[in-house]
Amino acid sequence: NAGVMQNPRHLVRRRGQEARLRCSPMKGHSHVYWYRQLPEEGLKFMVYLQKENIIDESGMPKERFSAEFPKEGPSILRIQQVVRGDSAAYFCASSPRQVVNQPQHFGDGTRLSIL
Amino acid sequence: DQQVKQNSPSLSVQEGRISILNCDYTNSMFDYFLWYKKYPAEGPTFLISISSIKDKNEDGRFTVFLNKSAKHLSLHIVPSQPGDSAVYFCAASADSNDYKLSFGAGTTVTVRA
Questions:
Q1: Which residues contact A93 (CB under 8 A, 6 or more apart)?
Q2: What whole-number distance in Å separates Cα of residue A10 and Cα of residue B40?
Q3: Do residues B61 and B106 make contact, with C-beta atoms less than 8 angstroms apart?
Q4: Residues 60-89 of A with CB under 8 A from B
Q5: Does the beta-carbon distance from B96 to A101 stay under 8 Å?
Q6: Which of A69, A107, B74, B109 has its CB 3.0 to 4.6 Å from that of A4, i.e. a possible disulfide?
Q7: Which of B85, B84, B38 is nearest to B62 (CA)?
Q8: What is the pLDDT of residue A98?
Q9: Are strands A110-114 and A88-95 parallel, antiparallel or unpaired?
Q10: Nearest by Cα to B8 from B78, B81, B106
């Protein structure tokens, strides 16, 4: 999974705190996707971003969750006032652009644990 | 609403034999399908894909078969090797340009020496 870098790899937060997850896409990739994986389930789409633009956030909860991909720097997934149900693995993926037959490449994820 | 289903949570196979992983989908708009492999504590790694205009795609030891009428696809690994032990996810999108991948819950493959 070299290329898409996520940090931190593990994050522990208490209920009510904020969690910030970072994702640096592969070099040359301008499209970023965030997915969430709950235990024993597949990955679920959350949000799709291009530089400085949110293209689709339909999979992201309306409250407490936000995402950005600034002109400079990594993409950030931010969860405010975390609750136990936010405990999951959060994966970021990137692609060079939306083209046919270009699979998304994933990072190693951030495991978020809420105490 | 689970649109992509992998009904076998686990599969055990002897080294050198064939591994067959199955995946069913319900959304008739899906036309691009992918298989990802995932080791513990790592992200999914792209393995192989197929578009709906084909019914078979082969890459080395990996072959994916698509049966559109049955809304079913399968991944064949021949011969299976110990390094193939991992979780395999089937994923699909409604258009080759669609960024929303829908994933199955995964099948854990264990290759026995």
A1: A4, A32, A33, A34, A35, A104, A105, A106, A107, B43
A2: 14
A3: no
A4: none
A5: yes
A6: A107
A7: B84
A8: 64
A9: antiparallel
A10: B106
Are B100 and A56 an interchain contact pair (Cβ–Cβ within 8 Å)?
yes
The chain-wide mean pLDDT, for chain B, equals 94
Mean pLDDT of B84-89: 97
Q: Which amino acid is at B42?
A: E
Structure tokens at A68: 């950005």
The radius of gyration of chain A's CA atoms, rounded to the nearest angstrom, is: 13
The total of other beta-carbon atoms located within 10 Å of residue A103's CB is 19
Mean pLDDT of A48-72: 93
Alpha-carbon distances, residue A45 vs B66, B82, B105 (angstroms):
23, 31, 13
The answer to whether the Cβ–Cβ distance between B44 and A106 falls below 8 Å is yes
Contact A104, A3 (CB under 8 A): no
Sign of CA dihedral B9, A104, B41, B61: positive
Residue of B nearest to A33 (CA): B99
Which pair of tokens denotes residue A84?
């136990």
Which H or E run contains B79?
none
pLDDT tens for residues A73-94?
999 999 999 999 999 999 999 9
